[in-house]
Amino acid sequence: MSAVPTPITPEAANAFNTANTAFREGRFAAAREAATQAVKLAPELAIAHVLKARILRRLGDATAARDAYDAALIADPTSFDAFLERGNVLRALGQTVLAAASYASAMEVRPLDARPAFALARLWEEQPGRDAEEKAAIAFQRALDRAGAGEDPATAMAGLCRDLARLRMERADLPKALDALRQARRLAAASDLTPLIDLDLAEVYLRLGMTAEAQALMEPLSGSDDPALLRALAQLAYRFNFWAEAVQILERWTALRPDEAQAHLDLADMQVKSWLLEDALASLDRAEASGKVPPASSAALRASIANRVGDADTALALYENLVAEGQDSFAPNAAMSLLYADSVTPNDVAHRHRALFANWGEGARSRESFGADPSVNRPLRVGMVSGDLHHQHPVNIFLQPLLARWDHANLPLTIYATGQTVDDQTRLARSRAGNWHDITTAQLPAQVQADGIDILIDLAGHTAGGTMRAFAQRMAPVQASFLGYPGSTGVPNIDWLIGDHVVTPPEADHLCSEQVMRLPNTVFCFAPEVDYPLPDFEAVSDKRPLTFGSFNNIPKLTPRTIRLWAKVLKAAPHARLLLRAPSFKDASAVARFRRLFAEQGIEAERLIFKGPVGLDVMMQTYSEIDIALDTFPYCGGTTSLQALWMGVPVLTMQGGQFVSRMGASFMTAAGLTEWIAKDDAAYVAQAVALGQDRTALLDLKRSLRARLKARPGWDPDRYATDFGAALRAIWRKTMEHPAASG
Predict the structure, then answer these.
(1) If DSSP codes are grouped into helix, strand and coil, which group holds residue 384?
(2) 467 contacts 448 by C-beta, under 8 angstroms
(3) Under a CB-based contact definition with an 8 Å cutoff, are residues 103 and 134 in contact?
(4) First CA to last CA across the chain, in angstroms?
(5) Parent domain of 521
(6) What is the DSSP string of 522-554?
(7) 550 inside domain
């Protein structure tokens, strides 16, 4: 006879409730502490062990989560939740046989529940080989049988088929996803599930490049009266660059529900993303008029609009206020705004980055907990995390040539793709990676651990994707930041920042929360894989006035930059300035910048504003400018390198931090140090001097691409070798001096 359980003490109940509340609110470190206390006070309480395991999973410690589920099963050998969720953890750890056994035990506890059978099907679907395929089919049929025993069997089975399809979509197994969705469509008939299935079908078609088929499904869905469906459809349209259609879909929602604040709020957000800033402000005003918009949502949108019209200081103040009020999900936005703001020094930027993320590392895993082999000369398993491997994104542009030359034998590579946009460039990157996981942020820690990654590289920083919390909790023995964020992240447990001797000189090490690994030539190697023909420089420039220009996005056009460019135009009275940016398709943005330049004494007729175009067209439009003017404090990155490639020299200024030194890095690597100004006065003087000799300027433009291709900073083969050597040096230095990079 089993012993009678000891009654739960009030202290144990209080600890459990505290942990549960903290877990629901996303305060995972506090939740773990309270859950640990609860299981200590009441070790026989199985649900407390399960809660602790769930918390540990969210913190990325799959091994400890597995042990907590084991403890739950000791307390209650019939715990369905423990068996099912333990199976999920074992699956993530790559322990397939044990995971299958755990799912089977869950099936025994609840024979009519479809979930463990479905989980078992998912497990076997992920394994290679015909045997696994057969096991997956059997397990899925068992899940269907259980779903078919309910009150609405057809809908339940259709839902399971849709769930299977979505799992296959996560793995980018699109043909099989299509099969499952077609089966779901047949089972669903004309049920409420049909539109959701059609939405998933449209996504699969888009990802397969079957645009016409996708549009045939999306068009009738856009006539739905279901706000949730319209919202999801708009997000899908936006992800695949149908911006105008996304806005129209949400406009329908506001027409259907004119008094619904969320409809206007979502529309405002989409209009911001689509650079329709004047419309966005009007939509936000309508949402706020209802009195039902959370202040944080309103402030965040106003900050985003301020950022996109070039008012970085206002955006920074709004984001930092949100963080101060406990909304720390906006800390990455505040960090990004710091890079654009004129009002802060490099020391301020560094200090405030560290302050924003100081508590994100609380309760993080130690490097030692991974038990990694410290050997220096063995193959090192490298992981890269990015949601940006798609057409036109700068990360993709720079990474593809590196992936094409990757040394998979010595540095076996796994890419963790967290983005939802998939196109031909995504598929190209996938073909070049050794291993590839389409993955969510929540799944990331366990998968990285299962893959045994030695060096995990973040390619986004605070720009997008939301993976910085997972990095702060440490997912691999060594973690590094590269390419996606132009400076120190300030995030705990990012051990290394990859830079070069100009963007990250040794005397600026104090600005970095990471150790710095310097590449020998330049941090970014621009080696486009598309042929962009050079223009006929004489034909396009002989009859026009000297034309300065910038293709940088509006957030970089800070008040200091405007003042600086106005001084250039005053010193070169016959010159003009061409600005191209997504914001300039919005009349309010153009009007604002005409006013800003007018306040500096620059006539409207000397300014040319142009909106966005596709990448191929944009590259050719560099022929419209003679000298590219760099921005400050946030220098151009991709745009500067594109300008140089198309024969347009870039006048830049060397500042005090990574983001303000990128132009200097590029021009140093190009051997054009006379194009680097030391201060504002020198910037203006050099702009005038370099633009006066049009013959010398034309000669430079003709020869510039050949000049670049002859230099090591533009040699992708050398760059790939240097990058591989840098990763091995990072591993060696970390293993030799672990405390210094811990």
Answers:
(1) strand
(2) no
(3) no
(4) 51
(5) 376-525+720-741
(6) -SS----SS--PPP-HHHHHTTS--EEEE---G
(7) yes
| Tokens of residue 182, six digits | 């077609």
521 with 542, same domain?
A: no
User: In this structure, are 685 and 704 located in the same domain?
Assistant: yes
Assess contact for 453 and 416: CB atoms under 8 A.
no
In order of 107, 114, 130, 158, the CA distances from 134 in angstroms are 19, 18, 6, 21
User: Does residue 187 lie in a domain region?
Assistant: no
Q: Do 629 and 506 sit in the same domain of this protein? A: no
Segment 115-164, tens digit of pLDDT: 999 999 999 988 888 898 899 999 989 999 888 777 788 888 998 899 88
Alpha-carbon radius of gyration of the chain: 28
DSSP calls for 257-312: -TT-HHHHHHHHHHHHHTT-HHHHHHHHHHHHHTT-S-HHHHHHHHHHHHHHTT-H
Task: Name the pTM for this structure.
Answer: 0.80
DSSP 433-501: SSEEEE--TTTHHHHHHHTT-SEEEES-TTSSSS-HHHHHT-SSSEEEE-SSSSS----TT--EEEEET
- CA–CA distance, 220 with 240 (Å, rounded to integer): 18
331-365 pLDDT, tens digit each: 999 999 999 998 899 999 999 999 999 999 988 99
CA distances from 738 to 368, 495, 616, 729 (A): 9, 10, 46, 13
- Does 28 fall in a domain? no
* Helices 211-221 + 227-239 axis angle, to 10: 150
